[in-house]
Design a protein that fits this description.
With 663 residues, the chain is α+β, with helices and mostly antiparallel strands. It folds into three domains: 2-403, no CATH class; 409-516, Translation Initiation Factor IF3; 527-661, Immunoglobulin-like (Sandwich). Helix content is 49%, strand content 16%. It contains 21 helices and 16 strands. The chain has a six-stranded antiparallel beta sheet, with no helix packed on it. A five-stranded mixed beta sheet has the order 2-1-3-5-4, with helices on both faces. Helix 19 links the parallel strand 1 (424-430) and strand 2 (447-451). Helix 15 (302-322) crosses helix 16.
Amino acid sequence: MHARRFTLLVLIVILVFAAGLRFFRIDAQSFWNDEGNSARLAERSTLLIIEGAAGDIHPPLYYLTLQVWRSIFGDSEAALRGLSAAFGLITVLAVFFLGRRLFEARVGLIGAFLAAINPFQIYYSQEARMYMMLAAIGVVATYLLVRLLDFWSLRPRIYVPHRRYYVLYSVAMVAGLYTHYAFPFVFAAHFAIVLAWSFYRPGRALTFIGSWLALAIGAGVLFLPWLPIALRQIAGWPAQTASLPAGEALRQTFQSYLLGGTIPAEEAAVALVIAASFLVVSLWAPDSFDEPEPDWDTTAPRALRFGTIAIYLLLPIALIFAFGLFRDAYLKFLLVGSPAFCLLLARGIDNGWQIARGAMSMPSALSGPREVAFGWVAVMIVLVALILGATLISLRGLYFDPAYARDDYRSIAHRITADWRDGDAVLLHSANQWEVFTYYFSGGPNVYPLVRQRPIDVTATERELNDIAVTHRRLFVLYWAEVEPDPERVVEKWLDRNTYKAAEKWYGRVRLATYAVPGQVADAPEALLDAQLGDRIRLYGYSLLTPTVAPGDIVQIALFWRCERAIEQRYKVFVHILDAGGQIVAQTDREPGGDLVPTTIWKPGEPIVDRYGVALPAELPPGRYPIEVGMYTIEGDGARLRVVNGTVDVGDALMLTQVTVTP
């Protein structure tokens, strides 16, 4: 009894610690696209959620669960992500029970602790998506399967008292199918586990296989109403074989399981080697190892218990590779095997500890005085500490490093709200940004999702852009995942031809660009020049469309270039607005054509119309401000090109004209 109370106390401490890690800074980062989709779907009625899920790429159960959760805890970022954190805690608890069932309580506790601090699980426990729900259902279903296998191994008279496990396992399997389409990987692993138990218990093989198939078929029947939708959605997944060499792909998989993706590979290397060693040690269970048996009547041998966890881990990985799903966007599918990884690593650490304590018969080279045993214990402590140290580095990256932060739609919305004026509009280059952006932005109807179908309809998209530009003077455009919906960059090219880009900034993987819509587009220079930049580039004119502006407006200027010979180097153009003392008060730097027409693709003699917007500070005092332009190299030292205007060498910048800022 004392041991059971101690185990319970340690388990409670682990769960509290796990909760702290999962709720710490849970709302520090913005929702990203898919989380926004979860948030907006959960606002709807049950029927509309099911309809929305049918038009999405995931089954509806997570969204329906989130709907109920939202009705209780609210719709803040922390509240909505709290559901995933709760499933993360269920996963930790289930890891303990599964470890205790297959091995013993000590392995279960170590496995639960490893799951509690696992950065991979913590990351998705702080995301308002279905992946931790998937992992939790998977480990709970595996635990229930092991209970059933134990029952089926014994006499038929014990079936009836444990009838509830049939129901619970069936419910778990159906719930998994309605949660994510990666759950069939768990189905496959369970079938392989049943076959393994049948091999070790040939006298019970018919009971094992027949009983499990009955339960699996029952779950499949309950999934039939959604099956046609599922097949259509799965067919829409972009299949892709692993582009990485097999060794690197496996290393990345191993790192994901141990440390997640919030640590540089070089800082993870030592921990990966140590963890791999522990996984090897987990295989070691000779007869001389005095391993305590589980706390119940079971006839499953050690090898079968170990094999159950190994199959649970390895088969989903094999299927992910086999179906060409190894890509960054699908690494989260590996979560289904994360509980098994924690248990195998726990088994290896426990075995290593037993070795260090001399609980195994050791080769003579390792036996010796008591001091030697203490030395091995010290080695074990150091090895585990190195894994924990790498875990802390990964958790620091997860919580605090901007390089690993999610796309920051919250900051984008705040930036647009602060700069908003009448006549502005927001364009969402990828239509599926609408949910997450409007979660943060309440700017009314002037939000336009653009690319709604693939491949993009060029004519319809350009017509829509023209209709928007006619009624708005400034456009905020959010570019995200633009290659897939718009590989030819139709939207950005149209905007470069018809508007003046003033600013651009990345917020994670989202690029926010600001464009001024002119009253008319300058296709010919209003002022002619004869300025030579370097020995190949000529600026032959410009047009200033906004000679008079107010503070906070966008100065619109078009530059007209021509090259005399092919250019091998890429250059950026700078447009500076200067004060009376020659200090820069506003500027735009980018490659020509809105970064779409680099100098290396210019053809000799071909005119290049290059449009620039320069956003003025809102607090800029009235006055006349000179405008200067020039070019500098992208690579190397960023040296500016010399400018000769006519026959006069004017240095490395050309003064064009002045803009008047009015009160």
